[in-house]
Every structure is written in structure tokens, then in C-alpha cells.
Design a protein that fits this description.
The complex is a heterodimer.
Chain A (H helix, E strand, L loop, with lengths): L4 E10 L2 E11 L4 E5 L6 H8 L6 E6 L8 H4 L3 E4 L11 H11 L5 H9 L14 H13 L5 E5 L7 H15 L5 E5 L3 H4 L5 E6 L2 E7 H7 E6 L4 H5 L5 E5 L2 E7 L3 H4 L5 E2 L3 H12 L4
Parallel strand pairs in A: 3-7, 3-8, 5-6, 6-7
Antiparallel strand pairs in A: 1-2, 1-4, 8-9, 10-12, 10-13, 11-12
Chain B lengths: L3 H11 L1 H24 L3 E11 L6 E11 L1 H9 L4 H40 L3 H4 L6 H38 L7 H6 L4 H18 L1 H13 L4 H19 L4 H8 L10 H5 L2 H23 L4
Antiparallel strand pairs in B: 1-2
Classes of the chains: A alpha/beta, B mainly alpha.
Chain lengths: 287, 303
């Protein structure tokens, strides 16, 4: 089966600022990809380019279409949720359902209504009258009632409390993980989605700094808690990152076999959050 | 799948105040004025005029004198008793047009404002990201806005005008119940009700095409403006007009822009213009601007 997304040399400039600098990556069907990067890294620009919401240079195929030319056809099979509320303030909740029902052939109104019924959102209220959490819930209810092949979520739970975030990711798991729907999700809260992901994409200053399947992570990256007596030996193996921890140093190694590291201490797979910090600091030339 | 109806409905959700409430209020106020005219405003008008014409070089003076008493309905009844059916139709047609004027001016301003701001507002409030995340092409989205302005909106305003015209005839009927002549024969039979409304719809379609360069231009500006679309919408044509005046002593561009940007003298024979080269040029220029608006909407991002 061909890739859901094929991106080659995607670039986007805002004036002199390189929001995306020749970014290339691919997404396979059914995968759940975490696009992780600091503020201003180019996450939103990349996601918007993917669904044809912003012009860009380079070659991009999403579900077999060029989003620049056939956005409307692509959006029959893909859904996008932006990072902050983009529903117009004057729109009533019931109108939002009417609209999605009217324009999207794959919108399941009963499903959206069932999801909204589980929230405190009244159907007659306008978007302007909803809290930030309700607004996100409404948008997600609309989008998750659409049966699509690709779901693109930009910081979907930003500003939501922990209860709703947990319930959202649970929902996402239950509703999509059985299907062939591919999900591309950007977030700051790496820990919350770590268990969900099949792939990782780290982005920094408009460039991809890591493109790795979760099940390759253990083979590529190792973390060792090194005692002071072994620091010199460990430094000789060129860790990509090191941090002080309880009088020792937690060091992360890339492409160094676990067997080589076993003498230095207990070898484990780094968490995505630690790996993220490690790769970013490597990209900035700091260890 | 036909998305046009829901896209037009979405515009009515957004612009309920100017699309529905405003014409209802204007029509309501006009009805109150009519009603007050019957109830509280008796007329006592002495009207005289002198017209001089010179057919065949011979000077002829025509004097008209009228003396109306009572309210407008009674005055109209007096006047109608002197007119034949054809003259009554002409009189009523003029009166209907008079009723149309106020709402038509409001409609014209609402259309201008809507087309100038619709695509700009979508970008300013970031909702463009929501609208564009739905499977609607840019061409369909832009044409839906045009159809809203040039078809749906005039139909709503025409409904208000029609209600007002019928109410006006109704008020006349009620206030002349005790008269000898029946109101039915006097006004309802000669009133050009349906033909007047159809003519109005014809005018709407005519201006939809004749002013297409204006409509397309406003949509293109709305899709492109970074701030205050009105400045670009007026600025560019003004610069063109000034440049033409500086470069040549002609005013082709100026007169063309003016002719296709505002309603014409009601006496203009629009049927003759319908299949003119000027109309063809207007449709071509308008289509070009619509194409630009669609292309810009495709590249549009949040502001």
C-alpha cells in the first residue's frame, strides 16, 4: 500500500524567516505520527501545508493528491483541527452540525450528537459563548464524526484540563486504532501521547531532526546512568546528550549498541521527552 | 452533491442582522409611516404647476391645478377617480418604485459591504482554517458568496418590498371602505403587482452582470487585503482614474468604472444594453476578477 503522505523538500518562507526548510518525510497507512517540536519550529506550518491550507514550495502528495491543487478533494478523506479555536464566533453549535452535515459526505451527525451529548455544550449556544475547553470539544466532536483516512491534529488538547485530555486520547485510541486511519498529531505534551504513537517526527527550526518508528527507538537510542568514575569512558562513546542526575550523568547514545554500553551501567530506552531534549540540544550544538 | 444551499445558508447565519433584521426594520418603519399617514396626517394640499412646451415652434402653456383634502389614501382616491385604468397602472407602478427605492439603496449598500468584507473576515477571525478544512472548492466557496449577494439577498429584500407594497394597497383598501368606488377596481386590478416584481428580479439579474467587474473586484480585494479592504477597493480605481487624467485628456476608464459601479438612471433602456459589447466586456472583466478572487482564496491563510 502506498504512503499516505510523501513530502519531499517542502519549504515555506515568511519574509526572511524559514518556517520550513526542505522538509522530507513519509507517513504509512495506519500509523500514528507525533510531530514534536518547540514553539516556532514549523509544526503548524507543516500541518497546514499538508492539508493545503498554506502555499509552499516542494513536492507533496497526500492520499494521492496535491493539496495545493485538490484541497477540497483531499478534505473528503482528511480532517484537520487547528491549534486554537478557528470556529467562527457567530456560529451556533446546532448550525455547526448542520454545516458539516451539509458539506461533508462522510459526516455522521448521530455520532457527533452522541459525542456532544457527553459534554456540557448546549446546542443553542454560539461559539462566542463557549469556554475554550468546550470550543475544542465541539471542534473535535465535529471532526471525529467524520470517517476519514487521515486525521491531522495540531495541538488538539492545548488549554484543556487533564481529565478531558485523558478522555480525548482514550477516545482517539478506541475510535481510530482499529482502523486504517493515519493520524498526524503535533503536541507539546509528549508524555501524554507517547504510548499512542507508532512514529516520531522531531522538528526544529523548520527542519526534521528525527524521523523514527517507535519500535526502532530501542535499537537506535540508549540511555545509561553513568557513575562519575566512568564519565571519561562514556564521553569517548560520543553521547548525544548528557544531564546530571543524583550525582551521576544520564547519557543518551545514538546508534551505539547496548552491548557496548553495558559496562557503563544499566541500559534503557530513553523516554520520548528526554530524547526530544537530546535531539534538540544536539541540533543546537549543545550536549 | 449540491453544496450551494448550505453555503448560502451559512452566510445568512453569519449576517442575520443585515440580511434579515435590517430589511425587516426598514420595511416596518416605512409601514409605520404609511399607517401614520392614514391615521394622523390629513393633507390639505393645493398643487399647481405650469409647464411650457414648444411643439412646432408654437408656445403652449399647460396648467395643472389640484386641491387634495384628507389623508394620502383619500387624496389618492380623489386623484384616481380622474384617471383611466392605464393611467392608474402607471401611477401605481411609479408608487411601487418609490417604495422600492429605500430598501434598494439599503440592499445596494449591504451587497457592497458583504462582498468587500466576506473573504477578509474569514481570514481575520481565522475561521478560514475551518472553512477550508471542509471539502468545498475555492470556486464553489467564492461563487456561493456571489450567489448570496446577487440572488439570495435581493430575493429577501424584494420580499420585504413586496410585503410593503401589498400592505400599502391594503391600507388604501381599508381607508376607502366606505367610498362608492371599490378599491378592488381602483387599485388592485390595475396594480402591476407581479409584473413589477418580475421586472425588479430582471433588474437584479441585469445588475448582477452589468456590475460584475465591481462584484468580482470587491471579492478579489476581500480575498487579498491585509487590513481595511475599503482602502484597496477605492484606492486602486482612484489611482487609475487619476493616472488616466494625467496621461491623457480622455476619461474612458473613469466613465467605464462609473458606469459599471452604480445604478443607472431608471429611464435607461437596459434591454438594449443586455446584448451590447459593453455588457460582454463587463462579464469578461468580472469573470477575470472572480478568477483572481478564487485563486487568492486558494492561497489564503489566516491573517
Amino acid at each position: 500500500m502506498s504512503n499516505v503522505v510523501e513530502a519531499h523538500g517542502i519549504s515555506k518562507k515568511y519574509g526572511n524567516f524559514n518556517a520550513l526548510d526542505s522538509v522530507s518525510f513519509a507517513i504509512q497507512p495506519g500509523s500514528i505520527v507525533g510531530l514534536i517540536g518547540p514553539n516556532g519550529a514549523g509544526k503548524t506550518t507543516a500541518l497546514k501545508a499538508l492539508v493545503g491550507l498554506t502555499p509552499f514550495d516542494g513536492s507533496l502528495s497526500v492520499l494521492g493528491t496535491d493539496p495545493r491543487k485538490d484541497r477540497h478533494k483531499l478534505m473528503e478523506r482528511a480532517c484537520f483541527v487547528a491549534d486554537v479555536g478557528v470556529l467562527p464566533r457567530w456560529l451556533k453549535v446546532s448550525n455547526a452540525l448542520d454545516y458539516a452535515d451539509g458539506v461533508h459526505p462522510k459526516f455522521n451527525r448521530q455520532r457527533a450528537e452522541a459525542m456532544l451529548a457527553a459534554t456540557d455544550i448546549p446546542m443553542h449556544k454560539r461559539v462566542a459563548q463557549l469556554s475554550k475547553g468546550m470550543l475544542t470539544q465541539l471542534h473535535l466532536s465535529l471532526v471525529m464524526a467524520i470517517d476519514v483516512d487521515l486525521l491531522v491534529l495540531d495541538e488538539p488538547t492545548l488549554g484543556l484540563d487533564i481529565l478531558y485530555r485523558k478522555s480525548f486520547y482514550q477516545h482517539l485510541l478506541n475510535d481510530y486504532c482499529d482502523h486504517q486511519t493515519s493520524i498526524l498529531i503535533s503536541t507539546h505534551q509528549v508524555e501524554e501521547i507517547e504510548a499512542l504513537l507508532t512514529h516520531l517526527l522531531f522538528i526544529n527550526k523548520g527542519a526534521i531532526v528525527l524521523d523514527c518508528a517507535m519500535d526502532e527507538l530501542a535499537a537506535r537510542f540508549n540511555e545509561v546512568l553513568v557513575a562519575p568514575t566512568d564519565w571519561a569512558q562514556a564521553e569517548g562513546l560520543s553521547p548525544i546528550y548528557s544531564r546530571d542526575l543524583l550525582g551521576k550523568k544520564a547519557m543518551i547514545f545514538e546508534d551505539t549498541p547496548a552491548a557496548k554500553l553495558a559496562d557503563l551501567g544499566e541500559v534503557s530506552t530513553p523516554s520520548v521527552a528526554d530524547l526530544f531534549v537530546a535531539k534538540l540540544q544536539t541540533a543546537r550544538g549543545i550536549k | 452533491m449540491n453544496y450551494m444551499a448550505i453555503l448560502i445558508q451559512r452566510e445568512f447565519w453569519e449576517h442575520r442582522n443585515t440580511f434579515i433584521i435590517l430589511p425587516a426594520i426598514v420595511a416596518g418603519l416605512m409601514f409605520i409611516v404609511m399607517l401614520a399617514g392614514v391615521l394622523y396626517a390629513p393633507l390639505n394640499i393645493n398643487f399647481s404647476s405650469e409647464t411650457t412646451s414648444e411643439p412646432n415652434g408654437q408656445q403652449v402653456q399647460i396648467s395643472t391645478e389640484r386641491n387634495f383634502e384628507g389623508n394620502w389614501a383619500e387624496a389618492m382616491q380623489q386623484e384616481f377617480s380622474t384617471l383611466d385604468s392605464e393611467q392608474r397602472t402607471v401611477f401605481l407602478s411609479t408608487a411601487f418604485t418609490g417604495i422600492d427605492v429605500v430598501l434598494s439603496v439599503v440592499l445596494w449598500l449591504v451587497i457592497l459591504s458583504f462582498l468587500l468584507n466576506c473573504l477578509f473576515n474569514d481570514r481575520r477571525d481565522r475561521s478560514i482554517l475551518f472553512w477550508k478544512s471542509m471539502p468545498i472548492s475555492d470556486a464553489t466557496a467564492v461563487l456561493a458568496k456571489l450567489a448570496t449577494a446577487l440572488l439570495a439577498l435581493p430575493i429577501v429584500y424584494l420580499s420585504a418590498m413586496a410585503a410593503l407594497q401589498i400592505s400599502w394597497l391594503g391600507l388604501f383598501t381599508l381607508s376607502t371602505l366606505d367610498a362608492e368606488a371599490s378599491a378592488w377596481d381602483m387599485v388592485w386590478v390595475p396594480a402591476p403587482i407581479l409584473s413589477h416584481w418580475l421586472r425588479y428580479l430582471g433588474l437584479v439579474l441585469f445588475y448582477g452582470l452589468w456590475c460584475l467587474p465591481l462584484w468580482g473586484w470587491l471579492l478579489a480585494v476581500s480575498a487579498n487585503a491585509k487590513r481595511t479592504p475599503l482602502v484597496s477597493a477605492l484606492g486602486v480605481p482612484l489611482c487609475l482614474i487619476i493616472a488616466e487624467r494625467l496621461i491623457s485628456d480622455q476619461a474612458y476608464i473613469e466613465s467605464w468604472i462609473k458606469a459599471h459601479s452604480m445604478p443607472m438612471d431608471p429611464s435607461t433602456d437596459i434591454a438594449a444594453l443586455l446584448f451590447s459589447a459593453d455588457m460582454l466586456l463587463a462579464v469578461l472583466v468580472g469573470t477575470l476578477w472572480l478568477g483572481v478572487a478564487i485563486w487568492l482564496r486558494g492561497r489564503a491563510d489566516e491573517l
